[in-house]
Design brief:
Layout lengths: L1 H11 L12 H9 L3 H6 L16 E4 L10 H5 L3 H21 L7 E7 L5 H13 L4 E7 L11 E2 L12 H6 L20 E5 L1 E2 L2 H10 L5 E5 L6 E5 L7 E5 L6 E5 L5 E5 L5 E5 L6 E7 L3 H7 L9 E5 L19 E6 L4 H12 L6 E6 L7 H4 L15 E5 L5 H13 L5 E5 L12 H18 L8 E4 L2
Parallel strand pairs: 1-2, 2-3, 3-5, 4-6, 5-7, 7-9, 8-10, 9-11, 10-12, 11-13, 13-14, 14-15, 15-16, 16-17, 17-18, 18-19
């Protein structure tokens, strides 16, 4: 008897209590709804109670784990064309199957992310039609192009007929010889419930974007990435609800006009535009201009109507001209400044010091440093010639691209010495821009050496009153 009891007790020691399934239905729904659709659907095998929970989710996030930012991403895109085609085929089938089983009257978020293929144009149109009819609030189409086919066919053209704004363009007709038919039942609902719109490798024209801006009264956030046929964009009128605008790598974009708008943040990266006009934007406090700024004077002219009110400013000043006679405006409201520049370039360093002097109440400073290929003492000494330093206000300094060179060390120590209110210094050796995911072995080795140098040498020179963080 005692032996049986001991066995029973030993067995009970390994019995696990399923506390998650004991949670109320409302909490289970929150857990499942926060997952991408594929992972959410996988929970249906846990128990009978879990079987149908995922089907009630309004978060239709069809993310492919292979597209999550991480090492090897670009190499994944360079895989054999046949493999990518098969993966895309499986992905499209899974999305179609989930849509067919969806029973909720509304969708909060619809996100599609995969390698685009002309064969699935009709499927994507059906997804958009589905999202329209379900009163989608967040719409994200994040497409990628097989590296072996880049340039052989256009990026996915947004179907004009879904918006009822005219016939398909020549680009749309060339993308598919048999464009799918469009139902008109979605016109009554449209996208008027949209709050967030994100396009990547989706060909949207000025006409399409201005339709969304004019007809979506709740649209507050718009991101357009790699729309190569977008030439002009106008955000004009107080009736437009847009608060956040991001434009990335739109290679033919020439003109941007924002006037009498509720815009709070504006981000532009990639190609420098010929015409940028930001007027009557009293709420605008954040500007990111991550294109190579050739003329600092021109930049200030383009931002002249809002520069004094900005609280966050992010710029790429690498290679920008330096004019010692040019007077910088005082950025009295600026609290966060982020500058990307070449720490070896004398003109870049001069412009950097001018920006610091023009920002008397700066709280956070982020330096994105390019490769330091040489050490010139006269260049390093430039950092010590900042006439007006925000010493009593600067609290956080972050140095990205740190390599442990003499010049980079001088940057770090200067701020430790001069900023009497400094609370934290962050060292990050990884240059998280451009093709950083595809960096080679030598680059990674440099990063490890920089981490070692920062922890072994730089940390000792930072006083204990300042928090030292080295990211790895």
């Amino acid at each position: 008897m005692r032996g049986r009891e001991r066995k029973r007790k030993a067995k009970g020691d390994y019995d696990l209590v399923d506390r998650i399934s004991a949670l109320p239905d409302e909490l289970l729904s929150i857990i499942v709804h926060s997952l991408p659709v594929k992972e959410a659907a996988a929970t249906s095998i846990l128990s009978r109670r879990w079987k149908y929970i995922w089907k009630s989710s309004t978060n239709l996030d069809f993310s492919d784990a292979r597209f999550v930012v991480g090492k090897g991403f670009r190499r994944f895109l360079q895989r054999r064309q046949q493999d990518n085609h098969q993966n895309s085929q499986r992905y499209v089938k899974s999305v179609n199957r989930a849509i067919e089983q969806y029973s909720n009257p509304t969708v909060e978020r619809f996100r599609a992310c995969f390698i685009i293929d002309p064969l699935y144009t009709g499927d994507i149109v059906n997804w958009l039609q589905f999202a329209m009819n379900k009163k989608v609030e967040i719409l994200e189409l994040e497409f990628y192009i097989d590296s072996g086919l880049a340039g052989t066919y256009p990026i996915y053209p947004f179907p004009h007929k879904l918006l009822g704004i005219g016939e398909e363009s020549e680009l749309q007709n060339s993308y598919s010889s048999n464009p799918p038919s469009h139902q008109s039942c979605g016109y009554n609902v449209g996208f008027k419930f949209l709050k967030v719109l994100h396009f990547r490798c989706v060909d949207v024209t000025q006409e399409v974007l201005e339709y969304f801006l004019s007809n979506c009264a709740a649209l507050e956030r718009l991101t357009v990435n790699a729309a190569h046929n977008l030439v002009d964009l106008r955000v004009v009128g107080s009736s437009i609800a847009l608060k956040h605008l991001t434009l990335i790598d739109c290679s033919r974009l020439e003109s941007i006009e924002v006037c009498d708008a509720k815009l709070v943040s504006f981000h532009l990266s990639g190609r420098e535009v010929k015409r940028l006009l930001l007027t009557k934007v009293p709420l605008l406090v954040e500007v990111s201009y991550m294109t190579s700024v050739r003329s600092i004077r021109l930049l200030f002219t383009q931002l002249s109507f809002c520069i004094s009110q900005l609280e966050i400013l992010m710029l790429d000043i690498n290679g920008g001209d330096y004019n010692r006679n040019h007077v910088f405006p005082i950025l009295s409201n600026l609290r966060h400044l982020e500058l990307k520049f070449d720490s070896d370039c004398e003109s870049d360093l001069c412009n950097f010091t001018r920006f610091i002097e023009a920002s008397p109440y700066l709280h956070r400073l982020v330096l994105k440093l390019h490769k330091c290929t040489r050490t010139r003492p006269e260049i390093c000494r430039k950092i010590g010639r900042i006439a007006k330093f925000p010493r009593h206000h600067l609290k956080v300094v972050e140095i990205i691209g740190y390599r442990g060179s003499h010049c980079h060390v001088q940057h770090a120590l200067y701020f430790v010495k001069k900023a009497v209110a400094l609370e934290k210094i962050v060292i990050d050796p990884i240059r998280r821009w451009g093709a950083w995911l595809d960096r080679d072995f030598n680059e990674v080795e440099e990063e490890y050496k920089a981490i070692y140098h920062a922890n072994r040498h730089l940390r000792r020179k930072v006083p204990s009153t300042v928090e030292f963080v080295c990211l790895s």
